[in-house]
Amino acid sequence: MISLQSYVGGRWVTGSGDPKTLHDPATEAVLGDVRPGGLDFGAALAHARTRGGPALRALGFRQRGELLKALAGKLHEHRDELIEIAARNGGNTRGDAKFDLDGASGTLAFYAQLATSMPAGNCLPDGEGLQLGRTPRFWGQHVWLPRPGVAVHVNAFNFPAWGMGEKMACALLAGVPVIEKAGTPSALLAYRIAQLVIESGILPEGAFQFVAGSVSGLLDLLGPMDAVAFTGSSATGALIRGNRNLVARNVRVNLEADSINSAVLGPDPEADSDTYGQFLANVVVDMTQKAGQKCTAVRRILVPSGQLDEVADALRERLQAIVPGNPLQADVRMGPVASAEQLRDVRAGIDRLAAVAQVVTGGSRPLPGPGYFVPPTLLRARDPDAAVLHELEVFGPCATMIGYDGSAAAAIDLCNRGGGSLVASAYSDDRSFVEQLVLGIAPWHGRVWLGSEKTQGQALGPGAVLPGTIHGGPGRAGGGEELGGLRGLSLYLQRTAVQGDRAVVGRTFGGEGQPG
Amino acid sequence: MISLQSYVGGRWVTGSGDPKTLHDPATEAVLGDVRPGGLDFGAALAHARTRGGPALRALGFRQRGELLKALAGKLHEHRDELIEIAARNGGNTRGDAKFDLDGASGTLAFYAQLATSMPAGNCLPDGEGLQLGRTPRFWGQHVWLPRPGVAVHVNAFNFPAWGMGEKMACALLAGVPVIEKAGTPSALLAYRIAQLVIESGILPEGAFQFVAGSVSGLLDLLGPMDAVAFTGSSATGALIRGNRNLVARNVRVNLEADSINSAVLGPDPEADSDTYGQFLANVVVDMTQKAGQKCTAVRRILVPSGQLDEVADALRERLQAIVPGNPLQADVRMGPVASAEQLRDVRAGIDRLAAVAQVVTGGSRPLPGPGYFVPPTLLRARDPDAAVLHELEVFGPCATMIGYDGSAAAAIDLCNRGGGSLVASAYSDDRSFVEQLVLGIAPWHGRVWLGSEKTQGQALGPGAVLPGTIHGGPGRAGGGEELGGLRGLSLYLQRTAVQGDRAVVGRTFGGEGQPG
């Protein structure tokens, strides 16, 4: 039993106020707690601004990349210990935990590698220079420079390692110190990672601070050079985006929120084809990995109406083979959801879906014994137009099949009813169908994943977020954008147009010859 | 006497409700009015979404560029008529009016030219493709596609032509229909331009709608694919950014707001140098062009303390030669401010500055006769640390000299106290000073303009917004970004990562071989 500490202002601090209890979601055993109060956020921000930020920016992009490499190594070194914590506090199977932890270290390593091709200093040219005057003498060059602010990262409970790691990687490489708030239910893993980061001494003091508990009040203190990156529910996201101080001071906000992602089986794949096989396999992984608690997981499965029976049978068979259990047991392929609150929400959500859909397998009924378990639950919509299908994210091992007529137009219409999603996947070898579908759904999605004969065995499924391509989506998905290589740094950098004599601007700030 | 109409839903509509009177600011003669009510915004949005948007997107980037070219030509064709309206309703001298009108047609023409190097279709690749899997088979390509929404442009009164033109250019080229709200005091010019746009038939029906009056209520109807671009005061900007519907639905918002821009005279220029001469000339232009009603105009003039007397003398002499008057008279070099409300605000602002600064020339005293006239007003700060100097934008022909010790560090500190500005200019031939200054102020500015011996006679001053470089600034300046070539389209496009078989993704969505 432990009360998690926060690391702010250069020391570990025990919180105060009403504790929130942390559980093992497989056994409901109490593991510790977090307490919301007792932190001096003004001092934390000052510490980041006066110590962490200047120390990071004294290094330049390339050296900061080396710090990320060392952090990746540190996580990898403690992988087994962290996997065990992820099982106990997160309900993660070994596979789930590796997905989270290797995602974190892999993303840190990706940005470390990216840094090797960046300038040594802090000035990153953006595009080519351009002539602005009557002659080439008067010249313009856009540059990106680190903002002298603080990055506040409000992380979700579902990826305590990866979520924190991917946000940290971009901010730290940009040269901006971070304050990491852990998602409460799974805070033990984030806490242990924070301990490793601090103990390692890899980062300069003030570059990394960690909050277990609450950041209530912190947002009211942020200024124009700061940034907030949030992952979590739409409702909390809207509270952050609408925060009076953030609005008044034009503080940058990036949100990753709910998303009713879809998978589309095209009209062409035969049941014995590789494309069809990928479709089934990816849907099952998305529904059951992390017990379906992924913001990128599929929630709507679009199937040509004539194939609904066959797909329902195939998915039912695979899903019924996955029995939720304690992830510390080696043969368990799916753990519980993260908390009693999640369990309640998921069951209520399944009931809401079941009002407009038939339950193919699983359902909302309680399972015997302790633990926050939900069986893999597949539904089949009676009415594809029912709004709840396109509006309700059930954040657990649950998805709904929806029939469509096999045309790209119908699939586009259904996908886009999600109101903006992180990802859609499509499975087809019909080029014309794929092209039409992508052009129709891309504006409503941050990412489109295409499965075809040739991708068999080549790729992680649509649920995996890769650091080279952006993560985020419009509208309902939060309207944000993270990762995508250098694109992910832009939240923390200021783009400025420098205009003047070409001999000065081009040489000092352009591609040739970097300052400092 | 005319009551301005709006063009919505395919027809001209007369507003209803309490009229706001439009004046000739030089004579206070009544020219017409605008009325806030009577428009069906739901129908206007539907018209844009179902007619204007699809018609624009049926064209592709290159053909849309041709529309912009035709619009630029139409404005140029009516230049003399428009200059006269700008004088009567805007208080613009001929030079001011040309700055606004040629800015509009020039920006439209710039984007028309840019379009010739864009894809013919609607799919704009973003960067190179990249390997995502174990082999190059699994591939990623970021693309930009037009969002199927509506661009709502809330324009400021100071640049009725340019402001509307630059926003329109980016949205229309992106493939997004616009609803243009005119700044009320100068709405006659925007109205006439709207008439020309509609009469010309250049744009497909629904691609351009025009609102004279108010957009109150319109923002509550926007959805995730829409965007709002606003230019005006911080206070109104915060109301827009904080609008409950825009927050809840993650509607994109771009703000250009107040800005306490600075000009820095470096420690080196001698009084007879070209660099020093540019400094004086640009400051005088910025203070008096458009009667100082430019969001990019200089408000703080940083001068090495030892040179304050000499600079004050030189600026006083030049400013006193500029006597405000009716811009319809050919010899008048500066007109009135735009409205009685502006006059009141500018006078009150000068008084607030005069509490911490000495008036070198001009001042807040009323001038004889009718018209909203303010003399060019230069102040000299007694205390450089007085907060009002760095926080109050007096939106008229007014700026304050502030002494500093000639070091880059001191200049950086003062410039950045503006809390985020659109532009800072610096005049120096000392490379080390310039480099240090730029790296220090760039994160707080959208643009930095460098004057030196070599830029003499080569460039428009820092007040001019060029379409090739970004316009916007962090924090106080709104946190937005417009123009900058292709960068200016990003508000209206969705960036999406397409992942799949390289043979499909690379060929269909990558650099080689554009769809449709």
Brief sketch in words of this structure:
Chain A has 516 residues and is an alpha/beta fold.
Report on this model:
Two copies of one chain form a homodimer. Chain A has two domains: 2-257 and 481-509, Aldehyde Dehydrogenase, Chain A, domain 1 (3-Layer(aba) Sandwich); 261-466, Aldehyde Dehydrogenase, Chain A, domain 2 (3-Layer(aba) Sandwich), CATH 3.40.309. Chain A has 516 residues and is α/β, with parallel strands linked by helices. The first copy, chain A, contains 15 helices and 22 strands. Chain A has a seven-stranded mixed sheet with strand order 15-16-17-14-13-18-19, sandwiched between helices. Chain A has a five-stranded parallel sheet with strand order 10-9-8-11-12, with helices on both faces. A three-stranded mixed sheet of chain A has the order 1-5-4, with no helix packed on it. In chain A, helix 2 (61-77) runs antiparallel to helix 4 (94-115) and helix 9 crosses helix 10 (308-320). The model of chain A is unreliable at 512-516 (pLDDT under 50). At the A-B interface, strand 7, helix 7, helix 8, helix 14 and strand 19 of A face strand 7, helix 7, helix 8, helix 14 and strand 19 of B.
Keywords:
homodimer; 516 residues; alpha/beta; Aldehyde Dehydrogenase, Chain A, domain 1; Aldehyde Dehydrogenase, Chain A, domain 2; 2 domains; 5-stranded parallel β-sheet; 22 strands; globular
